[in-house]
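Sequence in, structure out.
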Amino acid sequence: MKKRLRVRGTRFDGDKLSPKRRGELAEAAFLEKVVSLGFQVSKPWGESGPYDFVLDSGRRMWRVQVKSAHCNGKNGYTVHAHGNNREATYSIADIDVLVAYVAPEEVWYVVPVEVFLEIKSMKLFPASKRRRSKFEVYREAWGLMRRKGK
């Protein structure tokens, strides 16, 4: 049976929503998660910037881009590591961390920008016992933003 994204007790079937709406739901889930972890969070005005949120870890500010995956294909979940310009990936000048949300599994990946400078997407297999993604080391890695200081 397929899991459904839950936000504030309401169930949403990700397949029936537009990509924009799925992104909005992932951002709402992100807000709930980071506030529950004790981060201070700010949302920049408008949608033209390269990052979605700014997190204050107590040591520094983090520019965060939130991405989500809602459909598990034969090859796992795909999270795209680029903005509206599909040719250019995010850079160190754009963001500090990409947070990927695999909505049906309710799993988060916290990936520093340096990891995906040359790639355009990430394959994730959070429920698989056999297939492992090289990005598994970043699964629920919220501590990365607590330990690194600048």
